[in-house]
Amino acid sequence: MLAHYFVLLTSISVSTWATIVFDGRVPGDAALADFDSLDSIFDPEFTKGESVLFSELLAFVDDDVSLFDQQASAKSIEITIDDDSIFAPGGAAPQTAVRRAELSPNPAQSVDNVTTTGVKTLHFSIKPSPERALNVSHEYLMVFLERADFAGNQISLKTGTLLGSDGATKNDLVLLGNSNDGGETLFTTAFEPDDFTNFGLLMDFDQNTIQIFQSTGTDALVQQTESLSNDLSGNGQLHFGLNKNPTDPGEDVLRSGFQESGILESIIYGGIYVEDSADGTITLA
Ligand SMILES: *[C@@H]1O[C@H](CO)[C@@H](O)[C@H](O)[C@H]1NC(C)=O
Ligand SMILES: *[C@@H]1O[C@H](CO)[C@@H](O)[C@H](O)[C@H]1NC(C)=O
């Protein structure tokens, strides 16, 4: 078990004037081509297969607006993987056993590590695609913070059959702590098929703690855990998308194991933003 302790939540409040340090909510009038542009909200280059543009991997979901998109007149987005979703990191061998399509904040829109310093709340809403289902025989990594030196993930939200598990939580959303400390489970909730699941992850990058707020549909966020110890050092990048691992990976999960062909799988996101919670405020609705 993780050590955990209480913090005094003196000023958690519903707030409409929070300071937003990264706003990944997609404006209602955005076009798909905007995601290929150098001044996109999200990095137009990473992370995806080489010969494809983000505009070809994304679709707008106009008829289902998530909690935190409503107030910003923003819209949700669906991101898709197929057999070509093979990422080749600069100079390294392609990750042939993994299928990846992930949005990360455009570095130009999140300078000075603004999302990984101080006290910040990461907001996002996530929903399965009704048409392009995941295959829960596999492990999917869907939201994660990856250290700037790529030597691990401080937090990871997963679903499906987690590698090394019996699949008991394959239909859940499982939030895991730092992968260098064994990736312990911090929080688990059902992955609702028809509603957005909303998260607020209050992260103190000075104290190395995380506290989880969560709700379903249009309900306000509810505190789900106390403040939990978790190593958040190393800065790095947030990722939102699909990172589908192979089954039965050998020693190298990136390049061995089984990955079926002929796939077309999607996930839907809304309400991605990071707010400054240094004053103890987190927006709940
Ligand atoms: C951002 O984080 C990286 C990795 O930890 C670090 O090398 C860099 O100095 C940081 N930049 C600023 C402006 O703090
Ligand atoms: C799910 O994945 C497993 C392992 O890759 C594969 O054998 C199976 O055919 C897949 N099922 C569906 C419905 O695609």
TrEMBL record:
The keyword Signal is annotated on this UniProt entry: yes
Record carries keyword Hydrolase: yes
Secretion signal span: 1-18
Residue ranges occupied by any Glycoside hydrolase 131 catalytic N-terminal domain in the UniProt entry: 20-280
Domain of life: Eukaryota
Molecular function GO terms recorded: hydrolase activity
Gene3D superfamilies, sorted: 2.60.120.1160
InterPro entries assigned: GH131_N (IPR041524)
This protein's UniProt keywords: Hydrolase, Signal
Protein name as annotated: Glycoside hydrolase family 131 protein
Origin organism lineage: Eukaryota, Fungi, Dikarya, Ascomycota, Pezizomycotina
